[in-house]
Amino acid sequence: MNKFRAMEIFTCVVEEKTFTAAAKKLEISVVMVTKYIHALEKELKTELLQRTTRTMTVTHPGQIFYEYALSIIAKVNESYEVIEGLQAEPQGLLRVSAPMTLGKEIVAPIVAEFMSLYPKIQVELILNNHPVDLISEGYDCAFRIGYLRDYALVAKSLLNYSMSICATPAYLEEYGVPQTPDDLHHHRLLSHSTWNNNFTWRLRHDGQEIPWPDSWVMRSNDGYALREAALKNNGVLMQPRFLIEADIKAGRLVALLEDYLPSPRPVHLLYPMKKNVVPKLDRFIQFTLEKCSA
Questions:
Q1: In the chain, N or C: fewer CB atoms in 10 Å?
Q2: Host domain of residue 79
Q3: 49 HSE (CA, 13 A, CB side)
Q4: Residues 183-238: tens digit of each pLDDT
């Protein structure tokens, strides 16, 4: 049994609270998770987890082992960082998280150019509209839109994220041009599925903030899919300016309600505070800051 791998799997089970969730996060089978936990308990000659068909609880020995395992995993990761810091040329795996539309349009080109400069760095770029936990999920850095809540992370301001509302000339000829946010209730709307009470873009009207109407004809978690629907005359779209700016300039889409657009939000690059400089991360941070300020 690989003892270090067993510790990683055990700590993940404790944090995720089920074998199934831990297996999904670790990208291994539930059978493999079970095998490691059983082997670990056999090796330690004690029960670490009490399991029934519905619940799982950590035993007292399990809690003690969990705390030691976390410390050991952190020390091992720190040792890798120290050795990487001694190397003249940055190398190793760099894990990056970003929202989907921002990731495809802004982050992916930065990553591609960065990789050409540092061929010994492997980059795993994961695009997901749900914020990740950098430390527990093993990410080196993450791009985030909006105002920050996690003060335990270092944040570098990159750019402002501005929205635009638009539709095709053909759609507007058939359905009319909305003059105020209230008019949107009478239109076919293309909405992003991640907009909710916790994260939404509110239009501004007479000193008030007005949410984007919920009466959509299409909803998707991908801005590119919504843009394609708009270009086929299917409705009114609100998406980042950088995604649809070329379409507006070419006349394929018409900008709407520009006096009522949501306030821009900041984009930050976040990363955990490190005791030692990690060259691969340090170079990526500096490169990203340079590209976003150009």
A1: C
A2: 3-85
A3: 24
A4: 999 999 999 988 766 668 889 887 788 889 988 999 999 999 999 999 999 999 99
